[in-house]
Specification:
Radius of gyration of chain A: 14 Å
Shape of chain A: globular
Largest sheet of chain A: 7 strands, parallel
Helix content of chain B: 40-55%
Largest sheet of chain B: 7 strands, mixed
Order of helices and strands of chain A: EHEHEEEEHEHEHEH
Number of strands of chain B: 10
Largest interface: A-B, 26 and 24 residues
Bound molecules: S-adenosylmethionine
Structural class of chain A: alpha/beta
Number of helices of chain A: 6
Shape of chain B: globular
Strand content of chain B: 15-25%
Number of helices of chain B: 9
Number of strands of chain A: 9
Distance between the termini of chain B: 47 Å
Order of helices and strands of chain B: HHHHHEHEHEHEEEEHEEE
Oligomer: heterodimer
Strand order of the largest sheet of chain B: 6-2-1-7-8-10-9
Strand content of chain A: 15-25%
């Protein structure tokens, strides 16, 4: 095994995602040592406004993920609306237009399960606010392969269902307040 | 890390599928293939992929069931309406200059994309001079495509898409409703050839003015994408058009130089002159 240093951070969020991510992503430095892959549930017919929106606030590069591109350190990738985002064993990204999972495409579970396969213990999975169970199975997969799991404290979350379900599936996950997550990431992913 | 044994089993299973039945999924993007195979394993009730493989090799009805999982059929008429609007406004004027046309819809699934083109070409007065080729590796999908029957609950999306694509008539002009289904007019198929064709294992079969291959190559790894794009390159006449899915592009392909961006944001390319 290649030790415990993460090779990627994966994040899933739904209702309340923008406010939650706004408390985390701008805190990360331009040279954050791993890629950050994010699924936010947005309607498929919207052009992705997330990347430009966050690029304006963040020091890391922010982009919408493209099929077959390598995931680079220092970069935040959002799944495009209407497509699942998956990561391959060689660290490249792929998109798929498979069926929705739990009424969602992109799906947090799909990203997280592929990240568990690709990175094993070397991945940090974070489930944030949301009003559905997406992300729970995926976080379980990350826990089972020895990765680090973080869940936003459901009590403070804008919508508590997603973090609650994730905690049920992965009881040993760290429960953190939104304001603590960036600092925690900087500790587990040292530059 | 994904289980080493599982990786071995998946590789062997895909090899068996290829050697025995000539369906080649070996160079598909691994992460989504693995996801779909796990679904197949669990829903078909096997403890592991080796058990599934044994049945695949010895049990006649396992192949279609497994293929059902491997070739996911997700489609929509006039999917990404701005793509079809661009075809109407920017590509059709070029196509009008040809006395006869061939259009190839590669990976046509259950026909939604094909009918979108046929309807668009009819509305633009090009249908009569066009031959449409609709190909896929899934027999089930091809059969559904040649039936042209879709559940009525999908029609609202299709209708909205058609309108947003600049449709010149009402989508309801092209189908009749029966028993919860929309049955598309069979005259829409008068000029269509349906055929089994794999972008992985089969060759070029004609010279086209337009190739549409949307949301198929995202399932391939880079080498396989290159092979498919090579086929399109060989198949297209000079200045012929290639339309890809909204999240696909030629950037990583070694054939990228053979094409120019025609409308970049819609992923419509044109084969270069030389
Ligand atoms: C997601 S659907 C895309 C349908 C349609 N083109 C669209 O964009 O709406 C992918 C299709 O590709 C087909 N396919 C998969 N592998 C293929 C191959 N090697 N050659 C041709 N078609 C393939 C599948 O059977 C499926 O019908």
């Amino acid at each position: 095994m290649s030790g415990v240093l993460p090779r990627a951070v994966v994040i899933g969020a739904s209702a309340g995602a923008l406010q939650a991510l706004s408390q985390i992503l701008p805190e990360l430095p331009a040279d954050f040592p791993v890629p950050v892959l994010i699924v936010v549930h947005v309607p498929a017919d919207r052009r992705n406004m997330l990347a430009p929106l966050f690029q304006a606030k963040c020091r890391m590069l922010v982009r919408e993920a493209e099929d077959k591109e390598p995931a680079m350190a220092g970069t935040i990738y959002f799944a495009p609306p209407g497509y699942h985002l998956l990561v391959e064993a060689d660290g490249s990204l792929s998109l798929s237009s498979d069926e929705e999972v739990l009424y969602s495409r992109p799906s947090v579970d799909v990203l997280f399960e592929s990240a568990a396969d690709a990175y094993g213990p070397n991945v940090v999975g974070i489930v944030l606010t949301g009003a559905n169970p997406d992300g729970a199975q995926g976080l379980r997969a990350i826990c089972e392969s020895g990765g680090t799991a973080i869940v936003e404290n459901p009590a403070d979350a804008y919508a508590g269902t997603m973090p609650e379900e994730a905690l049920k599936a992965c009881p040993k996950a760290h429960v953190l307040a939104l304001g603590e997550i960036a600092a925690h990431l900087l500790r587990v992913c040292p530059a | 890390m994904s289980d080493i044994i599982e990786d071995i089993e998946i590789r062997l299973l895909l090899e068996a599928l290829y050697q025995r039945f000539h369906y080649d999924f070996r160079d598909y993007a691994q992460a989504s293939i693995r996801r779909r195979l796990r679904q197949a394993r669990d829903q078909l009730g096997f403890a592991n992929f080796s058990a599934l493989q044994e049945h695949l090799l010895h049990d006649d009805d396992m192949l279609p069931r497994l293929l059902g999982y491997l070739t996911v059929q997700v489609s929509e008429m006039f999917r990404d309406p701005s793509f079809f609007r661009t075809i109407r406004e920017k590509v059709v004027p070029h196509l009008r200059t040809y006395p006869s046309l061939k259009l190839w819809v590669a990976g046509c699934s259950a026909g939604e994309e094909l009918y979108s083109y046929v309807i668009l070409f009819r509305e633009e007065g090009l249908e009569d001079r066009t031959l449409f080729y609709a190909t896929d590796i899934s027999e089930e999908a091809l059969a559904a495509a040649s039936r042209g029957i879709y559940s009525l609950d999908r029609i609202r999306t299709f209708t909205e898409n058609h309108r947003a694509s600049g449709g010149k008539s009402s989508l309801s002009d092209y189908y009749t409703s029966a028993y919860g289904n929309a049955v598309f007019d069979k005259s829409l198929r008068d000029r269509v050839v349906f055929s089994d064709h794999s972008l992985v294992t089969d060759a070029v079969f004609g010279e086209m003015q337009f190739v549409s291959c949307r949301n198929v190559m995202i399932y391939f790894n880079r080498e396989l994408q290159d092979r498919a794009i090579g086929l399109f390159n060989d198949s297209l006449m000079r200045n012929g058009f290639l339309g890809l899915g909204s999240k696909e592009n030629l950037r990583f392909s070694r054939h990228a130089d053979a094409f120019t961006d025609f409308v970049r944001e819609e992923k419509i390319y044109q084969r270069r002159e030389q």
